Amino acid sequence: MPMPRRLLFISTPVGPLGSGLGGGVELTLLNLAQGLGDRGHQITVLAPEGSSLGDAAIVTVPGQLQPTAHTQGRSAPVIIPADSALGAMWRYAQQHQKQYDLIVNLAYDWLPFYLTEFFSTPVAHFVTMGSLSDAMDEAIGQVAQQFPGRLGAYTRTQAETFEVANAFEILSSAIDLELYDFCPSPGDALAWMGRISPEKGLEDALEAAAIAQAPLKILGNLEDANYWQTLCDRFPHAANCYLGFLPTAELQRVLRQCRALVMTPRWVEAFGNVAIEALACGVPVIAYARGGPAEIVQPGKTGWLVPPDDVQGLVDAIANIDQLDRHACRQQAEAEYSLDALAARFEQWFETIITSAH
Ligand code: HBI
Fold first, then answer.
1. pLDDT in tens for each of the 358 residues of the chain?
2. Which long-range contacts (CB under 8 A, 24 or more apart) does 94-97 make?
């Protein structure tokens, strides 16, 4: 077991931890804090005010939240609002960096990458989405060139959206399996989970469920109200399907009763934490063969992969759910996506950076 390290994790500036605005980053941070804490490391999390994160040591800073990167477009300029939480978090990090062996950035923003060379404590970057803008690609490319080995990603597919794909350490993801109860015999509903935002393609799941005449349960943060309104106009019953953004304990009580999770990403989903949450409950995953889910689903065993944007393909997969093995789903989660497996992967990545930085 390598020596205990003092690690400062800097969270996403788009929202307080626990609000759901940070999407998969919130779960990743919670899991890393718990998994690495259990392995004896000292974890501090730096996040916007109003954040909460289980029992990890957390430092919060006030300030204006960052506009989300995934709606800005490729040529979007770098935006830093006045009184920015992002700026405040990185000022804190600069002032306290000597107390840590490593700083780990989880923000998908330009500033942390630009500041890397100005820190004496090594800064690692866990990149949580695929390539979205030229400005971010440039900042990420700069780190790849100056500090090889400092970039991490969830999946190979996600890394390949960047020119510097080979500079990324692939770390996958995980969940706390103890929070998810296996369910051998589900009801007749399908599930869809995620931020309700255009890049998640919820309309295809609503259309496929309607054709298959299967009830659909929608869970997640209602991020884009205009988009949701267009869905409700097109699918009048959609509002009845929406169960809100639920904490994990309640979420899994709904999810585990479903026959399958349907994933309809329009973009390259970096990972798709919801896929392993489903597997942990024994719920097979029907997903477009795009991004992270394509590296998670074992076709014909723990789910089906469908040609991207092919709604009829979703309907065909829904008709073949009974060929899938719910026990195999739980077993895959235990083998590949436990907290300790994740912590061991990150610990090894951090050790390589820390030992080569001196
Ligand atoms: N946008 N500007 C910005 N910064 C982030 O850290 C960020 C984001 N959009 C979405 C997001 N993080 C997370 O929901 C995903 O990385 C999972």
1. 689 999 999 999 999 998 878 878 888 999 999 999 999 999 999 999 999 987 789 999 999 999 999 888 899 999 999 999 999 999 999 999 999 999 999 999 999 999 999 999 999 999 999 999 999 999 999 999 999 899 999 999 999 999 999 999 999 999 999 999 999 999 999 999 999 999 999 999 999 999 999 999 999 999 999 999 999 999 999 999 999 999 999 999 999 999 999 999 998 888 998 999 999 999 999 999 999 999 999 999 999 999 999 999 999 999 999 999 999 999 999 999 999 999 999 999 999 999 998 7
2. 94/118, 94/119, 96/8, 97/8, 97/121
Q: Which CATH architecture has domain 177-336?
A: 3-Layer(aba) Sandwich (3.40)
C-alpha 218 – ligand 1 centre gap (Å):
21
Helix (H/G/I), strand (E/B), else coil: 71: helix
Longest dimension (CA), the chain: 61
Site to probe by mutation for ligand 1, drawn from 51, 128, 224 as the one with most ligand atoms within 8 Å of Cβ, is 128
Alpha-carbon distance 232 to 220, whole Å? Answer: 16
Give the distance (Å) from ligand 1 centre to CA of residue 23.
7
Q: 292 in ligand 1 pocket by Cβ < 6 Å?
A: no
Q: In the chain, where does the domain assigned CATH 3.40.50.2000 lie?
A: 6-174+338-356, 177-336
In angstroms, what is the span from residue 282 Cα to ligand 1's centroid? 29
Is the distance from the beta carbon of residue 25 to the nearest atom of ligand 1 less than 6 Å? yes
CATH of domain 6-174+338-356: 3.40.50.2000
Q: Using CA atoms in the order 215, 245, 70, 333, what is the torsion angle rounded to 10 degrees?
A: -70
pTM value? 0.83
Distance 21 CA to ligand 1 centre (A): 8
The secondary structure element, H or E, covering residue 306 is strand 303-306
